[in-house]
Amino acid sequence: MLERIFELSLRNRFLVLIFAGMLVAVGIVSMRQLPIDAVPDVTPDQVQILTVSSGLGPVDVEKFVTFPVETTMSGLPGIEQIRSVSRFGLSAVTVYFKEGTDIYFCRRLVMERLPEAREMIPAGFGTPTMGPISTGLGEIYQFEVKGGGYSPMELRSILDWDIAYKLKSVPGVVEINSYGGQLKTLTVELNASQLVSYGLSLAQVFDAIEQNNSNVGGGYIERAGDQYLIRAEGLIANPRDLENIIVATRGDGTPIRIRNLGRATFAPMIRQGAATRDGREVVTGVVMMLIGENSRLVAKRVHRKLQEIEKTLPPGVTVDTYYDRTELVNRTIETVRKNLTEGAILVIAVLLLILGNLRAGLIVASAIPLSMLVAFTGMVYAGLSGNLMSLGAIDFGLIVDGSVVMIENIMRHIAKLKRSHDEPLTSEEMTRVILGAGHEVLRAIFFAVGIIIIVYLPILTLQGVEGKMFRPMALTVVFALLGALLLSFTLMPVLASLFLRRGVSKRTLG
Fold first, then answer.
1. What is the enclosing helix (H) or strand (E) of 92?
2. Rounded to two decimals, what is the model's pTM?
3. What are the tens digits of pLDDT across the range 358-369?
4. Is residue 339 in some structural domain?
């Protein structure tokens, strides 16, 4: 089989060159499509179920929210374990699935059980929802919203309604998390003595606010050929609307309004902490990336979108970016590029020194970029990302082993013909020499490179965090070695027949 591939390649040089050109084109496209990140994403296949239960303590959250959710999710296909955290006002249940399970299939399974979980939770204790489709490395962009003369509540409102709302439209962004500041709410501060004097209860106040906070429609009226829609606007927009709500009436028909019982104001929601930066309280936004996206491209889109949004913000409000994944990825790429470039230059220099022939050295060196393009194509097909772990493990010395043996043996056979540089070999002689030289080393090259590939196969059996960390590295090296092995049987002999036809002197090989 190896001999047949070798002979077909040498007798169909033009087709092999076309194949090499297609390989370059596909590899360049794959290289541009390859997701780039700093480190491998070791986040397991999981789905988070979050429930906000305002006012409930950890014990009540665990009893009335977390436990029903865990019970409902138990028994789903492919589940490995369920973990949960119950805090004041918050329940977080994480469902872990078997490695390799499609994340959207996992979320569909959880979504089918959520209605059952909602029925088990008492009314008013919160509604469980799934967390964003992101991972532990999903935080790709963080920024601070500044503004002199603006209160933390105003800055938080600008972040939530002006900035975050528009950033969600950026392709690859799944969620914007807001931290710090004060969440704006309409609050009624009741006077207990007034409630007692009017003979009212808190339940009556709650009912009055709930019943007077809605819009309704009432059909339409036709007049003079026009249609007029009938609607009643009752949604509360400001403290004044809230204070004007009628709670009850006296015996003489005098209305008792909220303003008679207390006052309504804009006040912050009760919070559990604050966001700080450089020792001061700040309002920050964190951009979460959709799982599987290219973090560098998404971060660039977010940066461009923020520049557009900043122009529309109120006077004096600015956005200060303090974490951009693009910078980290660019530094990682620069490190990988530097290491790969220096390694390639060193290998090429050693090849030229050992082979003693410039053309032969360049032919062997061409296997380095071509093998990398094969690796990029394999990485895109396998859904891997380029990072410091996967690309930094490439060893160019291993990649060129097969090509070095092939070209060196070809040069040795050419030197045996005792031809000088001024007497080029004919096409038939060159083909005969390369065929004879190649048949001697084909099996040796195959087994030498195959043994190196076998060394990496045990790494592919790793599971969990270890597998997510090291499998991309092993797969990348295997893809590159397979590409190098194929090139040593096909392209290297063809290039030798084209560029070594003038022959080499006997002194070249000592």
1. strand 90-97
2. 0.76
3. 778 788 888 888
4. no
Residue 323 lies in a domain: no
Strands 276-277 and 280-281: antiparallel
409 shares a domain with 477: yes
- φ, ψ of residue 233 in degrees (nearest 5): -95, 115
What kind and span of H or E run contains 277? strand 276-277
Confidence of residue 503 (pLDDT cuts 50, 70, 90): low
28 and 75 part of one domain = no
| pLDDT tens sequence across 12-26 | 888 989 999 999 999
* Shared-domain flag, residues 215 and 262: yes
pLDDT at 212: 86
DSSP secondary structure of 391-446: HHT--HHHHTHHHHHHHHHHHHHHHHTT--TTSPPPHHHHHHHHHHHHHHHHHHHH
Same domain membership, residue 504 and residue 360:
yes
Distance CA 280, CA 268 (A): 19
Q: What is the pLDDT of residues 152-203, one digit of tens each?
A: 888 999 999 899 989 999 999 999 999 988 888 888 888 888 888 888 888 8
- Separation of alpha carbons 18 and 37, rounded Å: 33
CA distance readout (Å), 341 to 150, 335, 348, 392: 51, 10, 10, 11
Total number of domains in the chain: 3
Residues 97 and 203 in one domain: no
Reported confidence tier of residue 304, pLDDT bands at 50, 70, 90: very high
* Cα-based angle 352, 355, 361 (whole degrees, multiple of 5): 45
One domain, residues 385 and 436: yes
- Output phi, psi for 386, to 5 deg: -85, 120
What are 51-96's pLDDT values in tens digits?
Answer: 988 878 899 999 999 999 999 999 899 899 999 999 888 899 999 9
Range of the domain at 213: 187-268
Q: Is residue 417 part of a domain?
A: yes
Candidates 385, 401, 421; CA nearest to 502 is: 421
Residues belonging to the chain: 510
Residues 61 and 26 in one domain: no
CATH value at residue 237: 3.30.2090.10
List the end-to-end C-alpha distance of the chain, in Å, as a whole number: 33
Tell me phi and psi for residue 165, to 5 degrees.
-60, -40
Residue 478 lies in a domain: yes
Amino acid identity, position 264 = A
416 and 482 fall within a common domain: yes
